[in-house]
Design a protein that fits this description.
The protein is α+β, with helices and mostly antiparallel strands. Helices cover 28% and strands 36% of the residues. It contains two helices and eight strands. A hairpin with a 2-residue loop joins strand 6 and strand 7. The relative contact order is 0.19.
């Protein structure tokens, strides 16, 4: 009986610690995630194709996330997945999964670690969508 109480107490302590760790991690995420900006913004999107040619697009928007802007302007098509919007086509050019092609999202030349629909936009931002080969 005594061992049962000790075992239950250990399990309870483990659950409480797990909840505490999850709470702390969620708090850190909320504090460090990039904030959205309300109001009108002007952004640029550079589309770089496999042959190296590119097109530049400028958008004036009140949207707070890049994915909303790209979909509103019908620049991209994609699928909603567990990690957000997976872009399958940009400016009418589809990525060929059979050739391991995919659209890489970068901001100022650096890879973005969120999907387009979770990427906040700020006035003056420049994004690149590059057709990339190889996983």
């Amino acid at each position: 009986m005594e061992e049962q109480k000790k075992s239950n107490k250990k399990a309870l302590i483990a659950v409480v610690l797990l909840i505490a760790v999850i709470t702390v991690l969620f708090g850190v995420y909320q504090i460090t995630k990039e904030k959205t900006t309300a109001g009108d913004k002007n952004i640029k999107v550079e589309v770089v194709y496999q042959d190296g040619k590119s097109d530049s697009f400028s958008f004036h928007t009140a949207r707070e996330y890049l994915g909303d802007v790209l979909k509103d302007e019908k620049l991209v098509e994609g699928e909603d997945g567990q990690y957000g919007l997976f872009i399958t086509s940009v400016n009418g050019v589809p990525a060929d999964d059979g050739n391991q092609e995919w659209w890489c999202l970068t901001k100022g030349g650096e890879q973005v670690n969120t999907s387009a629909d979770k990427t906040p936009v700020k006035d003056g931002d420049t994004y690149e969508l590059t057709l990339t080969v190889g996983y």
